[in-house]
Amino acid sequence: MREIKPGRYRHYKGNDYQVIGLATHSETEETLVVYYPLYGNRDLWVRPLAMFAETVEKEGEVIPRFAWVGE
């Protein structure tokens, strides 16, 4: 699994998100990514690390679901 560090990420559909960091689910101990969209109301969201770091296929190309943009 690739490293997820705080910073700006671009979702494969085009929107940017700010990752705050990682959290641990209190019941399952699953690692979650804490982030918010850089548009709209900017509510906090969490997504399982495995899902955040996975790849998707877009127009025949395998790309990351969220790609690192920078700090």
TrEMBL record:
Residues 7-67 form the DUF1653 domain. Gene3D superfamilies: DUF1653-like domain (2.30.30.320). It holds the Pfam family DUF1653. It comes from the Bacteria. This is DUF1653 domain-containing protein. It comes from Alcanivorax nanhaiticus.
